[in-house]
Predict the 3D structure of the following.
Amino acid sequence: MSVELSAPADLPPAFRAALAGLSAVELRPELVVHELPAPPRLAPHAIALHASVMSGDEELAEGRLIVLHDPEGQEVWAGDTRCVAYIQAGVEPDIASDPMLLEVGWTWLVEALDGAGAEYAAESGTVTRTTSERFGALSGHPVDCDVELRASWSPQGELAPHLIAFGEVLCVAAGLPPMPPGVVALPRRRAAKARQRR
């Protein structure tokens, strides 16, 4: 699917042109993407997208991508534009307990960016796993395990490959087969478990 973005009149021409390139991106069909109100205090200009990976009516993973732009640049960005991504997906308990999960989660992002041909600098982030177990009257419900990736990086050149990479990371986190070679996918969670979490 493609992405439709609004273009506020006050956007700098260079940032407006970069965003126009995003509208031409064709993403994987499992992705449902729409624009969100951008956070107002992180940068003078920004756009925000929400994406879900869907299998029928079931949401397998969800995330947000925010593209920040400051014409004067920011030192920690190493440039005038910054991508900020948040991704969350459910995983099976045996996958959540794998000691390599966090390192693999970061590898998803790096390999997706490289596989999409995205140029970037000053990448940073965290990968977190959470486990929730219910007790008492709720003890019959399955254990919920999630992996969360929070990352930011400074795009160099066109933005389109960065949106493609974000979509690919989201799909891989959801357990879908990777599109670029070399990206490791997790097994998909049970459908019944996903429905109970909704």
Residues 180-185, 187-198 have pLDDT under 50 and may be disordered.
